[in-house]
Design goal:
Length: 443
């Protein structure tokens, strides 16, 4: 039996994609603009070892399975069709695959692609969310190379959810941002402009307004990335800002950009674990995209620590990816995201985060869900990667570029379908009973 016949038996004859295989067989819609091609028997080995998303990921990342066309469109169609139909691989299907591929090849285990972080590799670095293990997890994802990130993120070098004015207009301008980024790459990433860059500026300004930044204040930005919030606060609001990151490459890049912008007297980024930042009298703290790496067991101590670093009347703005409900089972640590993208990453519902902030002593003053904005942000990043694909592959290799292509397209789908959300939660460390907040904030 040929692979295309097995494909039809598993997903049905009306799949809205083309399917082709190394044995010359084909199935699905011959006119579809997306196609799945099984290039070698190794792809079948991966699927046999893990007949789920992990097996498909391994086959695609290693290049033994190809996907032609737009990745987001392909994932959306497969999700709509396959999962709606309740796809299952029966014993009969397995037997047919064995006869087609050959028993020896079928049972021969194939090592995962090198981009996959194995549990054994992490276990050797200590307990989950120990300093050493967190440093390795951050290194895996954020130290891919600053040149690669410039291609994907654009001139703002901001790897967190942007804030758009009008969703429809933002979608129409996805190509504009990608073109601007492509031009910027040849100029050291110094070119500015484009819808994505405007939206990232708007995000930093929203955070600044929620924090009520004023000239002379001291801001601590934990998990600061390439220093975007640090530089924005210093440049636009006259704040003295310190950012900390576990990524050495991010810290080095940020230091150079801070010097280029003439902000060295008021802005600094250090290569440091947030737990090693000494208690001090900070007026404001921003945490943009760090809580996902803290871990559920550490949330209470995390917010306790931040509370201790603020002056009375100080504010914390926590911005992070969340789950749509608080009673869901813990995330699958063996799934695609944990294996390939964010090792040891954990997401919580917004109420769990808010509870930890409350218990640490923060009075919650505002909460906002930016779920749709993150879907739009990821569309821009995906467009940037596609437009700069050849250069990205040259920088990080095809396997890593494939991980990013799959990861970002899948996340667009996740935010659109409310699998994940993005919350900003504003808390105040009361000065006695005074929150030092306006009666009706304008943000």
């Amino acid at each position: 039996m040929r692979l295309a016949e097995i494909f039809e038996r598993v997903v049905g004859p009306d799949a809205p994609i083309r399917f082709t295989a190394y044995d010359g067989s084909s199935a699905g819609d011959p006119n579809s603009d997306v196609a799945l091609h099984v290039r070698t028997p190794v792809a079948v080995n991966y699927l046999a070892q893990s007949p789920n998303a992990v097996g498909l990921t391994r086959a695609y990342v290693s290049g033994h399975l190809d996907l032609e066309g737009d990745m987001y469109t392909a994932l959306r169609r497969m999700s709509d069709f396959a999962f709606a139909e309740g796809v299952n691989v029966s014993a009969r299907d397995i037997a047919a695959i064995v006869r087609s591929v050959g028993w020896v090849k079928f049972v021969n285990r194939v090592a995962p692609p090198p981009q996959e972080v194995t549990r054994g590799r992490l276990a050797g670095l200590g307990w989950r969310h120990s300093k050493r293990r967190d440093a390795e997890a951050i290194h895996h994802h954020y130290d891919v190379g600053n040149d690669f990130y410039e291609l994907v993120l654009g001139p703002s070098m901001t790897y967190t959810c942007a804030v758009f004015d009008e969703a429809d207009a933002a979608l129409e301008r996805v190509g504009e941002s990608a073109d601007a980024t492509k031009g910027a790459a040849g100029e050291g990433g110094k070119r500015s402009g484009g819808a994505l860059e405007s939206a990232q500026f708007r995000k930093y300004e929203l955070v600044s307004r929620k924090l009520g930044l004023r000239k002379g204040m001291r801001l601590l930005d934990v998990g600061c990335g390439w220093g975007g919030m640090v530089m924005h606060a210093a440049r636009e609001h006259g704040v003295r800002a310190l950012g900390v990151t576990l990524s050495k490459e991010q810290a080095e890049w940020a230091a150079k950009r801070i010097a280029q912008e003439g902000l060295t007297e008021v802005a600094e980024v250090r290569h440091m674990d947030y737990r090693d930042v000494p208690d001090a009298s900070y007026d404001r703290i921003s945490s943009i995209g760090l809580t996902e790496h803290v871990g559920a067991r550490n949330l209470d101590s995390y917010f306790d620590s931040l509370h201790g670093k603020l002056v009375p009347g100080g504010r914390l703005l926590n911005h992070c990816i969340t789950r749509p409900r608080n009673d869901l089972k813990p995330m699958d640590t063996g799934g695609f995201i944990n294996r390939y993208v964010f090792p040891d990453g954990e997401l919580e519902g917004p109420a769990r985060i808010q509870l930890a902030m409350n218990d640490a002593g923060f009075e919650i003053r505002h909460q906002e869900n930016l779920r749709e904005h993150y879907a739009l942000t990821l569309r821009h990043w995906s467009a940037n990667l596609d437009r700069n694909w050849d250069e990205a592959v040259a920088l990080v290799g095809e396997g890593t570029a494939r991980v990013w292509r799959l990861y970002m397209a899948g996340c667009v789908l996740g935010f659109e379908r409310d699998v994940v959300q993005l919350h900003q939660i504003l808390g105040v460390k009361l000065d006695g009973t005074d929150a030092h907040m306006p009666l009706r904030p304008e943000f």
